[in-house]
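README: folding subset

This subset contains proteins for which both the sequence and a predicted structure token string are available. Records are stored as plain text. Below is the entry for 9669_t:CDS:1 (197 residues), shown exactly as it appears on disk.
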Amino acid sequence: MSSNITYSYNSIQNPPEINQHYRYQLQEKCKALFLRTQNNTSALYEELIMKVCNISKGDHRMAALVKDVGGWYNSYRYKLHVAILQLAEEFSKTHQWDGEEPPMIEIELFVSENVWRQALHFYLKATDFPTLNKDTEILAKLGTFIRKMVNDVLKDQKRDEDTQHLIKKYNEYTLELKIPTKLSIAKFLQVRDLLDC
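--- output ---
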């Protein structure tokens, strides 16, 4: 007596690709995480991917996802740099100063809460906005973060220096921020350890 039983190993050998829901969640958590750190490491990306997509570090999909997240982060840095350049240009049109240091008091007045929120709008949309709006410490530090970037861009522009490197140097203002999101992943990620700070 012969039995015609066939086994399918396809589901074991080739796990399904990450679905669009998880990819969307991953993008949103990356945006929120960007508010904490504009720097990056593969370890940081892997930890975020494991938590959001519920896969292991050794999963065959990990390398492609790390590449995607790296591309998103590069895009986020570029967008923020452009926004800061625009603010610096607007400030320069209406303010004059002597010496290399722009007046910080003028920058603080110019970069009001509405202005810095607009500069960070793309990333703020990925947060738990009602909770974030109640946290005055986070809001104050995000405002300081944008004002400091505008200040440094203005100084570098006055010296005719490139300003792209500036985006990665502001972790002192944002790294410890517990940015609220619906899943709290970006909030509790051990960013300092994963960046080897």
